Amino acid sequence: MKGYVVCVYKNITNEEKLKEYAIRARAAVEKFKGKFLIRGGRSTSNEGEKSPRTVVIEFPSYDEANKFYKSEEYQDAHSVLKGYAERQHQIIEGA
């Protein structure tokens, strides 16, 4: 079964750091054969608080998605956001 990274941002305080993170994170996504399904874009919030950004990445498997998150490459990218973004990050097994 495929694995999905679902990341819902609650706030972003530095757009430049977000851009730097995105460049580094993309390399890790590609290394682990991930495919961006949602990366920002227009949105409508029908219930709950509106998020400034939502990202969904599909991986070949749940295990591969977890390997991506734990990888040195992704953790290096993730460190760029520390103190500049608050978000919920999940890895979900999909159909």
Principal-axis shape equals: globular
Tell me, what is the CATH class? Alpha Beta
Helix segment tally:
3
Major sheet details = 4 strands, antiparallel
Structural class, judged by helices and strands?
alpha+beta
By CATH, the architecture is named 2-Layer Sandwich
Structurally, how many domains make up the residues?
A: 1
Using only C-alpha atoms, the radius of gyration works out to 13 Å
Percentage of residues in strands: 25-35%
The number of distinct β-strands equals 4
Strands of the widest sheet, in order across it, are 2-3-1-4
- Unreliable residue stretches: none
CATH topology: Alpha-Beta Plaits
Mean pLDDT: 96
Note the run of SSEs as H and E: EHEEHHE
First and last CA, distance = 6 Å
Helix content: 25-40%
Q: Any overview of this molecule?
A:
This protein is of the alpha+beta class and 95 residues long. The chain has a single domain (3-93), classed as Alpha-Beta Plaits (2-Layer Sandwich), CATH 3.30.70.100. Helices cover 38% and strands 33% of the residues. The protein has three helices and four strands. The protein has helices spanning 15-31, 62-70, 72-81, and strands at residues 3-12, 35-39, 53-59, 85-93. Strands 2-3-1-4 form a four-stranded antiparallel β-sheet, covered by helices on one side. The termini are close together. The mean pLDDT is 96.
